[in-house]
């Protein structure tokens, strides 16, 4: 988080002890407008949610209510996709009798046989990643037998940065094979927005959610949501939590009158995506922080951020490949997974003996041990599904990458000498 954003948070927390100073100063509207710039859409189509899992659950609820998923339909997602964009679809398929299909991760080529590709920071449709190829194959295959009701994907896989997934092209493929109602396209952009541009409306995305605490420099506790006009303007759609703040006429501190004739309160929603705002008043502590963070991202511009970070991840990939380690052949400009070599996995299997359940578990053991060793040397990366998730940002330098590679080489030497 930026120091300037941290300072805004301190100031906002202090105001809570003088609540009479808390006013609706238009910060929420500013956040909607700034986020709309990032996704190339209208502020009228931006909603506020406490988390991406909440936003995806809200999308699934309205897709179910609309009758767009029926028994026998298919909902497509990716293996090892972030659970925030999986649990809601598991439940939806169980309720509707639809079939949830996970597309397996494309197998990486052997590191010694390739060189890392130049990473893209745009949405070029001329180059397809392994995920693009796997997705298009799966879409065409399943469309021959069933209707694809929902495609729910990230822009990059959160574990190893593999991708990008060409969202624009995917919409064209979905429309080409559509049988009946158009496939609903849901995107979790948490791992890309702020570094890689997205054009939500022109790319035909129906619902898009992005937690602000990742690449948007924000605090925890907020996910910003794009809702396509088809859904936000549909009078049949609704929030999953019912309260006053997203009702027409209840802006700011205005309280709606209780109607004895109804009895109760007016049920008319705010226009556009505001009706999908989570319950409760807009958080006066988070909003100034998020606004400050989004302003900085837009000032630096995602394209420039991505281009800066692409050099660091390329350096990381090249160093890892020289060691014989595995990295995705196509990955995000801002993060990537570094996995064990075949020899590392064999060693883990040998040491664990009959207790090991397979090579994937051995890779996880290696990544867990590597992350712990690196942490002892004040280098912090996450172990995710058998790889080290290396995610530099603009505060990192090439020296940081070189130190990571040096300590990782030391870990492998110690591991092989046991």
From TrEMBL:
Organism whose genome encodes this protein: Symbiodinium natans
InterPro entries: Aminotrans_V_dom, PyrdxlP-dep_Trfase, PyrdxlP-dep_Trfase_major, PyrdxlP-dep_Trfase_small
Highest taxon, organism lineage: Eukaryota
Protein name per its UniProtKB record: Csd protein
Every Aminotransferase class V domain range: 29-105, 181-230
